[in-house]
Specification:
- The chain is built from 12 helices and 19 strands.
- The chain has 407 residues and is α/β, with parallel strands linked by helices.
- It has 2 domains: 245 residues, TIM Barrel (Alpha-Beta Barrel); 125 residues, Beta Barrel (Lyase, Ornithine Decarboxylase, Chain A, domain 1), CATH 2.40.37.
- The strands form 3 sheets. It has a 9-stranded mixed β-sheet.
- The protein is elongated, with a radius of gyration of 24 Å.
- It starts with a helix and ends with a strand.
C-alpha cells in the first residue's frame, strides 16, 4: 500500500522538524498479505515481514541496543529494495536506509518510505532537485563532490542534508583520513550544508580494521575539538559488526544480516543470535519428461542419464540470478521432497526426479527458503561450495510478494 501524497508531505515535514533525523521513527499502515497469482509460472520471491522486523530487533541487540542503518544496496541483494525498505520503515530499531544509487533512493521515497535515506554513492546532477526535495542525505566523498554540491546549493535557501564519507583504508571511496580535517572544515563553513553523519567502511582483516577504527576515532575527536559537527558516526557492516564491538560507534550498518544470513557460515554467533530467514525463491514446474539411458541435457550435454529417469524443468536460470553452480548438487523442494539440480542454463534448470514420475506440471518448487536446511542460503551455499551472498544476483524483474510471516 503506497501512502497518499498528502501523508508523505506531512511525514516529511515532521521528519524535518526532528533535531536528530537518524532517530525519527516512521508510522505507516500495515501491509496486506500479498500472494503470487495462482497461475504464476515464472520465478517469484516471497518476503516475510515478521522475519525482517525480528531480525532488525536482534541485530540491534547484537550492538547493545544501538540503532541500525539498513544497507539495501544492489536492490537489497536482489530481494527488492523498495519492498524490504517498506517493511523496515515500521521498525523502531531501524534509524534509516542506505543505498548507493541515486534513482533507487528516489524510488524508495516514491514508494512511501519515510525513514531517513542516505545515498552513499554519487548522484547525477539532473536528479539534484528531486534528491534534495525528498530529504535524501547526500554523501560528500571527495574535494570534487564537495565542489559539485557547493555549486548546486548557491540558489538553495534551506539546508541540504549531507554525510561526510571518509576513507580510513578501504581505498575505493571517501576522503582520505589524513586530508579530511581541512575538507571537513570547508563543509562546516557552508551554512547551507547540514551534516547528519560521518562514516567510513572497514576492510575484512581484523588487524587492519582495528587500525581503521583508531584512525576514525582520532579524526572525529579532532574535528569535535575544533568545533566541527560530525553527526552520527557509523563504520560497521555485517562482518565487522559481529567481530569488532569497538566499531559499533553511534549506529551499525548491516546488510546481509537483515536478510537472516551471516556473512560466514558455521560461526558461533549464529548459535547465539537467532536470525530468521526472510525470503523464499519459488517457481512452478513447466515440464516433466522421461529421459532414456544415455540421453543428455543442455548445449554442452552436461548431464547424462545413466538409466531411464524422470526430469522436471523449472523456468529459472543463471540469467535470473540463480547460480549456475547449482548443477553441482543443489536441492529444490517440491511438496515434501528434495530433488537434486542436474543442469542450469540461462533460463531453465532441471531436476532429477528418479525412476518414478513423482511431480506434475504446475507444482510449486522452492529453490531457496527456510523450509529445509538444504535450501536455506547457508545450506545452498554449502552444497554448491559457494557463499552466502549468492542472492545478490537475483534480477530486479523477479516479482516480490510481502507476506505477514512464513508458516
Amino acid at each position: 500500500m503506497i501512502r497518499s501524497r498528502r501523508a508523505f508531505v506531512r511525514n516529511s515535514l515532521i521528519a524535518a522538524s526532528v533535531p536528530n533525523l537518524w532517530s525519527a521513527n516512521a508510522i505507516i499502515p500495515n501491509f496486506s498479505e500479498e500472494k503470487a497469482p495462482e497461475n504464476a509460472i515464472n520465478p517469484w520471491i516471497e518476503l516475510s515481514e515478521a522475519a525482517y522486523l525480528k531480525n532488525a530487533k536482534v541485530i540491534s541487540s547484537m550492538a547493545n541496543g544501538k540503532p541500525v542503518l539498513a544497507v539495501l544496496k544492489n536492490n537489497a541483494y536482489g530481494l527488492g529494495d523498495v519492498e524490504v525498505a517498506r517493511i523496515l520503515d515500521k521498525s523502531p530499531q531501524i534509524a534509516g536506509i542506505a543505498l548507493v544509487k541515486d534513482k533507487r533512493a528516489l524510488a524508495l521515497r516514491k514508494a512511501g518510505v519515510s525513514k531517513p535515506i542516505l545515498l552513499m554513492g554519487d548522484f547525477d546532477d539532473a536528479l539534484w532537485k528531486d534528491l534534495v526535495k525528498s530529504d535524501i542525505t547526500l554523501a560528500v566523498h571527495s574535494d570534487e563532490s564537495l565542489q559539485k554540491i557547493q555549486k548546486l546549493i548557491r540558489k538553495k535557501r534551506t539546508p541540504v542534508l549531507i554525510a561526510m564519507y571518509v576513507d580510513t583504508g578501504l581505498g575505493r571511496m571517501g576522503m582520505p583520513y589524513h586530508r579530511a580535517v581541512k575538507w571537513a572544515k570547508a563543509i562546516a563553513a557552508e551554512p547551507k550544508l547540514r551534516v547528519t553523519s560521518t562514516f567510513s567502511t572497514l576492510t575484512t582483516p581484523i588487524d587492519f580494521a582495528n587500525v581503521q577504527i583508531a584512525r576514525f576515532n582520532e579524526l572525529t575527536a579532532q574535528l569535535n575539538k575544533e568545533g566541527v559537527q560530525v553527526g552520527k558516526r557509523h563504520l560497521a557492516p555485517s562482518s565487522s559488526m559481529l567481530e569488532l564491538p569497538d566499531a559499533h560507534m553511534d549506529m551499525v550498518r548491516p546488510g546481509i544480516l537483515l536478510h537472516g544470513s551471516f556473512p560466514m557460515g558455521g560461526t558461533d554467533v549464529a548459535e547465539k543470535y537467532h536470525l530468521l530467514p526472510t525470503f523464499r525463491l519459488k517457481a512452478r514446474v513447466i515440464r516433466v519428461e522421461k529421459l532414456r539411458a544415455g540421453d543428455t541435457i543442455g548445449f554442452s550435454r552436461f548431464y547424462t542419464a545413466k538409466t531411464d529417469q524422470w526430469i522436471a524443468t523449472i523456468p529459472i536460470g543463471w540469467a535470473d540470478g540463480y547460480d549456475s553452480r547449482s548443477e553441482n548438487g543443489a536441492k529444490v523442494l517440491i511438496g515434501n521432497k528434495l530433488y537434486r539440480v542436474v543442469n542450469v542454463n540461462a533460463s531453465h534448470c532441471n531436476l532429477l526426479l528418479g525412476q518414478d514420475k513423482e511431480v506434475t506440471v504446475g507444482e510449486v518448487a522452492t529453490l531457496i527458503g527456510p523450509d529445509r536446511p538444504e535450501i536455506t542460503p547457508e545450506g545452498f551455499a554449502q552444497l554448491i561450495k559457494g557463499h552466502n551472498y549468492l542472492q545478490i544476483h537475483y534480477k530486479e524483474s523477479i516479482p516480490k510478494y510481502v507476506q505477514g510471516s512464513f508458516h
